[in-house]
Amino acid sequence: MTSPQDWPLYEVFVRAKRGLDHKHVGSLHAADAAMAIEHARDLYTRRQEGVSLWVVKSSDIVASDPDDAQALFDPAEDKIYRHPTFYDIPKDVETL
Amino acid sequence: MSAVTAPVADRALMTYVLRLADTALVLAQRLSAWIGHSPAIEEDLGCANIALDLLGQARLLYAYAGELEGAGRTEDDFAYLREECDFLNATMAELPNGDFGQTIVRQCLLDLWRLELFERLTQSTDVRLAQIAAKAVKEIRYHVRYSSGWLVRLGDGTDESHQRVAKALTTLWPYVTEWFAEDAMEQALTERGVAPSVAAVQVGFETRLAPILRDATLTRPVDVDYRWFGKRSQHSEHLGHLLADLQSLHRAHPGAQW
Amino acid sequence: MYTQGLLEAIPKAVSALEDSERMARFQARIDAEEKIEPKDWMPDAYRQTLIRQISQHAHSEIVGMLPEGNWISRAPSLLRKSILIAKVQDEGGHGAYLYSAAETLGIARSELIDQLLSGRAKYSSIFNYPTPSWADIAAIGWLVDGAAIMNQIPLCRCSYGPYARAMVRVCKEESFHQRQGYHAMLSLARGTPAQQRMAQDALNRWWWPALMMFGPPDTASQHTAVSVRWKIKRFTNDELRQKFVDFTVPQAQFLGLTLPDAQLQQAADGHYQIGPLDWSEFNAVLKGNGPCNAERIAERRAAHADGAWVRAAAIAHAAKRAARAVA
Fold first, then answer.
1. Looking at the domain assignment, is residue A79 inside a domain?
2. Residues in chain A within 8 Å Cβ distance of B40
């Protein structure tokens, strides 16, 4: 598949404006981290889409397995008491 | 349109501005030839971005030259309707691209010189020039980052890449010296505080270049005696071909709007 | 996007029962308009269809840089030159986004590029037509990008997440391409007689190829049914072609240009009916016998080959740097 002569793949995350999280926008190829930042700038922020960039080597990302999704995420489903809407508070209590 | 005939209040400043504009335009023209042909898609985008910045700088500078002249010439009149002997760009900008390594060497040398020059121009007593420089400096800082990054990678990459950029550096170096051969016009503008001192720009250029060459494991070539003077319209044979290409369509339809 | 090890993560042999259960779950997810994401199980045919479609799309963007790049050096004003550079640059960007999306399916970009350069992969035939005049640049923006948008907007809702997300980005940028093309065409159509002639000539040459960009008629298209079921495709070729014609005919009328179709007429229901398309020409270009097929691939090959030492040097330098950092 990937040969050692290929530039490795980097994932790119862009902060659209101050106060927002960095969001995954796609990937690119670069020989090193500095180049990855430059490429990310040229590829993903040509129209002022961002004020800050993160690049991470794709091979360094550890992702959860979709087959584990039920085990990982479904058990949270019945913990409805975690949500504020679970609690019925009399209307007279105004500041809660 | 080819010859400047109207009396211009500040002929020296207009000429100086045209030198800056022509260098930016001619370099943009060369660099944009890489789009679609560079070593990787990402580099196509990088070269295109730098070419766009340079074109933007050229357009602002031509507009200002037109105002200084006061004869109603537009950016396109300057770019498309002047002859080779009217162009005042630094000769290095018009040299053919060569391989990607030669393009990078040319770009890095010009970027470092222009960064030093434009940073100082932000302090110019000429307000318009200072404003244009302030915008351009942000762009050129990125250009330096791109071209010096590549110069280091190629210089300190494989044996082949090292040899290629080392050869390109030797080939291009003679064209550096024109930048630092101060003429009377530049001297006069420096005295007025319009243009920075050429000597100071040279010191800054050398200071910026040294660590890049060190990281690229390249040696600064020795200066040669012969100097090109594109800034005084003494061009290489390459500019004529570049302009023939650039101007052909525009000239084929005089007065047309696009 | 999470490419590495993706194919390996798929169990080599699954029981038929497990397979049909997974298939049902997969189809249910698509029917519920949920996206399929890179690490999800997917039928191999879905994966291969997407790899083929996304990579063809990416190749088209990259090859598409060439006919327009042909006019960067000669663009007739500095503003048009800037616009054209920005546009061709965007095409490169679109190619990169799309290769990224294809890579999430477990195939490396270098492999896709090999397929293109070796002639195994297809790209849009439209880019095998030449751009002898400046008006071709205007016509490409207006018609080719216009047709592309028509094809691509439904892809923003494609069932495969990374492709859909890439297409959202592409479509946003593509509308600038179409508008700048129409704007350039308008300048020519309102210009000197020579410019008007140039504009009409370009329209004559690009109109039919642009209509063929939507692909063969529905009666002859092999891929449509399953692609529609998997929500890779949402409209048929003929539906999209008709929509494009209906949008474009009034635009041409506004320009005062004549569409090269003597049989073109507006039906009672408002739709425009076009004359027959010459599919023999389409097939000839598709098979590699178009005017510029060989040149386009030769240019891509040359760029790739000439850049090999540069790419290798960057890798070598990164390795040296890494070694020095450890020492």
1. no
2. 7, 29
Chains near C with 3+ CB pairs less than 8 A apart are: A, B
The secondary element (H helix, E strand) that includes residue A13 is: strand A9-15
- Number of independent structural domains in chain B: 1
- Do C314 and A32 count as a contact with CB atoms less than 8 A apart? yes
Which of chain A's residues have a Cβ under 8 Å away from the Cβ of B152?
none
Q: Is residue B183 part of a domain?
A: yes
Interface membership of B37 toward C (CB under 8 Å): yes
pLDDT for C236-248, tens place per residue? 899 999 999 999 9
Between CA C58 and CA C65, with CA C59 as vertex, the angle to 5 degrees is 100
Tokens of C241: 């072609």
Query: Would an 8 Å CB–CB cutoff place A70 in contact with chain C?
Result: no
Under a CB-based contact definition with an 8 Å cutoff, are residues A13 and A53 in contact? Answer: yes
DSSP B28-81: HHHHHTTTTTSSSHHHHHHHHHHHHHHHHHHHHHHHHHHHHHTS---HHHHHHS
Cβ neighbours, 10 Å, residue A34 = 17
List Cα–Cα distances, C45 to B74, B181, C17, C41, C49, in angstroms. Answer: 58, 68, 18, 12, 6
Name the residue range of residue B29's domain.
Answer: 6-252
- A46 to chain B: nearest residue by CA? B49
The reply to whether residue A3 touches residue C110, judged by beta carbons under 8 angstroms, is yes
pLDDT average, residue stretch B80-88? 97
Q: Please calculate the CA angle B85-B89-B92 and round it to the nearest 5 degrees.
A: 115
Q: Inform me whether the C-beta atom of residue A47 falls under 8 Å from chain B C-beta atoms.
A: no
A93: alpha, beta or left, given left = phi > 0 and alpha = psi -120 to 50?
beta
Q: Give per-residue pLDDT as tens, B30-42.
A: 999 999 999 999 9
Return all residues near C156 (Cβ < 8 A) that are at least 6 apart.
C164, C167, C168, C171
Residue whose token pair is 């498309």: B80
Q: Following DSSP, what letter does each residue of C187-249 receive, concatenated?
A: HHHTS-HHHHHHHHHHHHHHHHHHHHTT-S-GGG-SSHHHHHHTTS--S-HHHHHHHHHHHHH
Q: Is C94 left (phi over 0), alpha (psi -120 to 50) or beta?
A: alpha
From chain C, the residues in CB contact with B78 under 8 A are none
Closest CA to C210 of C257, C144, C261: C144
**Residue labelled with tokens 């093309």:** C181
Percent helix, strand, coil in chain A, to 5, is 35, 20, 45
CB contact under 8 A, A32 and C166: no
How many folded domains does chain A comprise?
Answer: 1
**CB contact residues (below 8 A), chain B span 203-242, against chain C:** none
What's the CATH code of the domain at B197?
1.20.1260.10
Residue A41 is part of a domain; what is its CATH number? 3.10.20.520
- Whether A29 sits inside 8 A of B45 (CB atoms) is no
Give the residues across from A27 on adjacent strands.
A11
* DSSP 8-state secondary structure symbol assigned to residue C87: H
Q: Give how far the C-alpha of residue C228 lies from the chain's centroid of Cα atoms, to the nearest Å.
A: 19
pLDDT reported for residue B1: 46
Q: Is B201 helix (H, G, I), strand (E, B) or coil?
A: helix
> Is the minimum CB–CB distance between B44 and chain C shorter than 8 Å?
yes
Looking at residue B200, what is its pLDDT?
A: 97
Q: In what order do the strands lie in the sheet with A22-29?
A: A22-29, A9-15, A52-57
Give the ipTM of the model, two decimals please.
Answer: 0.96
Place of tokens 């002898």: C132
